[in-house]
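seq:
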Amino acid sequence: MRALLLLVLAVPLLCIARGAHAQIHRCLGARGEPVFTDQPCGSAELSAGVVSGDLDRDAQANADDTMVQGGSLIAAACPQSPEEVRDRIAVAFNDDNVNALAGLFDWRGFSHAGADARLKDFTRWLRQPLVGVQFSGAADPSGARPDDLDYAPVDPSGLTVLTSSDARSFGLAQRGGCWWLSF
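struct:
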């Protein structure tokens, strides 16, 4: 009887201990939607489910692909091209929206204090008029020029945001089907 009682008490404790070691990963799905999983981001199991659309189909079907923020229409999914990153930077400046700008960055490696300092800097920076956004990166490896028939454009590896008082350069890279800015 005593052994049975110990077994009955031990099973829930083992389940709790096993759950305490489980780790939840916040990843991005194929359309830029957040996906919470026990698999590391980019793992084969997660990638197969996200690419094939095995997520809640009703939620996806009813999801609105756009949202209005500050009077401007912006896509709710992550940027799918460098040009879309550029356009979202313009919207962030137009709306003086630090969250819209911050959402374009890869924040890995930043401490809370470091990210907070960047956001405060962005808040001040967004008050300046935007002059333009210029892409930077490698030229066509074949040496072709834009007006040549064999010209193959290469994705930019960075961009520079020009305001009335300064220019700030950032890295630009594709990861997880989305385009992200880096410091």
